[in-house]
Amino acid sequence: MTEMKNFADDAALARAVAADWLALLRDRTGPYLAAFSGGRITGKFFAAVAELVQASGATLGNVHFFWADERCVPPNDSESNFLPAQDVLFRPLGIAPDRIHRLKGELPPAQAAAEASSEIRRIAQLNADAIPVLDLIFLGIGPDGHTASLMPNATPAVLQSREPFVHVDNSPKPPPNRITMTYPMLAAARQVWTLVTGDGKTEALRESLRPDGKTPFARVLRSRAVTRIYSDVGPT
Question: How far apart (Å, rounded) are the C-alpha atoms in residues 98 and 229?
Answer without folding.
Answer: 30
